[in-house]
UniProtKB/TrEMBL annotation:
Residues 1-23 form the signal peptide. Residues 148-271 form the DUF4537 domain. Pfam families: DUF4537. Keywords: Coiled coil, Signal. It comes from the Eukaryota. InterPro entries: DUF4537. Residues 28-55 form a coiled coil. This is DUF4537 domain-containing protein.
Length: 295
């Protein structure tokens, strides 16, 4: 399904990785034009993926979105994957991931091209500092509100939220996050939540939606969605524990600094993300079992 788009990104990648253009662009590649083509390709891939999934969905699943035209895969990924799951995967999960991987590859190359431009300007400034003046576009790019911020962000692998630090914002919709547990992912901004510092700490009541911190014995921690079902007893000053009913219908007791208040929409979306990740694991395990039996 993604074979038509693959040659373009491979050629583009080749241009970028000719010795990474020695990091100062000695071959004078027009990186602005290159980035523009990448952005256009990414939009085409996103639109194509949205259309392919929309055509594969049965009418009853389409009606849930209340749209007559294909909805954006980027904005409705979890719901669309859930629709495909409900329909018995009319197109395979692997086919969907092929195109999604192309989109992420394009975003990665776009990020690298931006870094290359910055390196080129720094080198030119070092060689001839008086002749280089930052443009308005450069000044605008210097401000990255999330860069270096502590966050909790969703991992595509599990659907859980993990602590991390934003390396930088890549596009208006994605950021590169360095997770504390040891890996880096490109994460949609809507799945990133700043924490720490002067962040508000609203009071919590029964029925509020939260992310509850789960700590493992080895020091790893992550956050899962839940609902407050009991608050500390105000008459007992020693009682500081909230009781949370987690997404899997299990209870968790946690102090206030281990809870992050969220909206009902984020709660629902997070539960769906976790379910989708579990479906992926089940899907691959089933395929492996079938393949093993065939052999």
């Amino acid at each position: 399904m993604a074979s038509k788009g693959r040659p373009f990104l491979v050629v583009v990648a080749h241009l970028l990785f000719i010795k990474f253009v020695t990091l100062i662009n000695p071959q004078a590649v027009d990186l602005d034009a290159y980035k523009k083509k990448l952005e256009e390709a990414i939009k085409i891939y996103e639109r194509r993926l949205s259309q392919i999934i929309w055509r594969a969905l049965p009418q009853e699943e389409k009606e849930k979105f209340k749209h007559d035209k294909p909805v954006s895969y980027v904005d409705h990924k979890e719901s669309l994957l859930q629709g495909l799951e409900n329909a018995g995967w009319p197109i395979t999960y692997d086919e969907v991931m092929l195109l999604e991987d192309e989109i992420l590859t394009g975003l990665t190359y776009l990020h690298q091209a931006t870094e290359l431009q910055a390196a080129s300007r720094e080198e030119a400034q070092r060689i001839c500092p008086l002749q280089i003046n930052p443009t308005k576009e450069q000044k605008r790019k210097m401000f990255d509100a999330l860069k270096g911020k502590k966050v909790v962000a969703r991992s595509e692998c599990t659907g859980f939220y993990y602590p991390g630090i934003v390396v930088r914002t890549i596009t208006p919709f994605y950021a590169l996050v360095d997770f504390i547990k040891g890996h880096t992912e490109i994460v949609p901004l809507k799945f990133i939540m700043p924490v720490g510092g002067a962040m508000p700490c609203p009071s919590l009541q029964v029925g509020d939606y939260v992310f509850v911190r789960i700590r493992k014995q080895l020091g790893d921690e992550h956050y899962v969605p839940g609902v407050i079902i009991a608050t500390p007893n105000k008459a007992d000053l020693e009682d500081k524990l909230y009781t949370v009913l987690k997404y899997n219908n299990r209870k968790e007791h946690c102090v206030r600094n281990g809870l992050i208040k969220i909206s009902q929409r984020r709660y629902t979306c997070s539960c769906l993300c976790i379910y989708t990740s579990m479906c992926k694991m089940t899907y691959y395990q089933t395929r492996l079992q079938v393949k093993f039996q065939e052999e």
